[in-house]
Design a protein that fits this description.
single chain, Aspartate Aminotransferase, domain 1, 2 domains, 7-stranded mixed β-sheet, 5-stranded antiparallel β-sheet, 13 helices, 35% helix, binds ligand PLZ
Amino acid sequence: MATPQVAQVRRLVTEIPGPKSRALQERRERAVAAGVGSVLPVYVERAGGGIVEDIDGNSLIDFGSGIAVTNVGNADPAVVERACEQLTRFTHTCFMVTPYEGYVEVCEALDRITPGGHEKRSMLLNSGAEAVENAVKIARGATGRQAVVVFDHAYHGRTNLTMALTAKNMPYKQGFGPFAGEVYRMPMAYPFRWPTGPENCGPEAARQAIAQISAQIGAQIGAQNVAAVLIEPIQGEGGFIEPGAGFLPELAEFCRANGIVFIADEVQTGFARTGHMFACEHEGIVPDLMATAKGIAGGLPLAAVTGRAELMDAVHAGGLGGTYGGNPAACAAALAALETIESRGLVRRARAIGEVALDRLRGLAEKYDIVGDVRGRGAMLAVELVKGGGDTSPNTEALGQVVRYCHSQGLVLLTAGSYGNVIRLLPPLAIGDDLLDEGLSILEEAFAGI
Ligand code: PLZ
């Protein structure tokens, strides 16, 4: 099936959002629950490569990838073709009723491409939150322990357990308790805001967390009670926080020495996004379990837990599953997306995007003292805004101005951060150099204008 070509040029023919989008927004407000938000309410007609086309005929540059999902580009032809072919044969049987090859193939691929040469198994689910929940279930089932250690600024989802695992109250948790128990939160190695400076934010920061988990005196939990340490190797919603070098290896080593399952939440960082297939690879971390989703299937809902065979197989038969987990069309899409990532060298492409963009963002940091920090890897980059003049408190006003300008100029741009003061760049890896350059120029203009 031929996918319609989306011209790779930004083109604005109305104000943003345009009249048709505004009308649809009114309709939406009467039909859709108010608790479901949208960053930029332009209603989409089609999307591809680095462009999102709206129903008013505007073409916007995509620096969001639907929150790090369409790494291979939107409606990637290989993804569309393979998923459509699958849809014509069967749409669903439920893998737990009568299984099919696509599910097995995706698990084989995940077992192969995730870090570590050991024997692995995978299971498939629908969303990142579900993958994280299942990773915790597996860790608890396999260890017979209950406690789960998470970190400040963490984001792991919106279900009851994953709300408990997520750090930020508003908007994710406010009013939705009581939350699941046996969740313990530790300080995160956040270099820009580490009290004793970024240079002390590696192994030393890990040792602080470790002491709180299992010091001989004054520990909160006791290592023998900890089923899992769960962490995003680069935090996503929390503000693209990359822990200081040595933090993750020290934690992983502590887990290994104490029979604790080290779970990497690579839901946002996975599938070439950070210039490696998985962000754990930057420091050679081999997690025991990994939760993945988002970039796995080029936009179709699919998620997975992959990990050591002895952990994954420790759960009793029937203890894991779900009606839709590993839907056949989503599996077909995933196989195409994974092939595309490998055949088009998207890991390399992410690095190239990172080099170009970081250079430009560092230019902003030199020019404007409200740019407190520029950070990130590959095509997962962030700018943290502060008051400036030595004051590093969060500058949400400037953030609002920058983002509003970018949106008005047809650049889809997202924010993040526990303090709501981080601009994040997540362009599809299929974006062309011209659009990347133009998007960055719009961002520069936004700073020049405040
Ligand atoms: N773990 C690291 O980034 C999803 C959330 C957007 P789901 N991040 C985007 C929002 O406001 O809901 C995410 C993540 C990490 C888990 C999840 C959860 O993945 O597919 O949204 O359930």
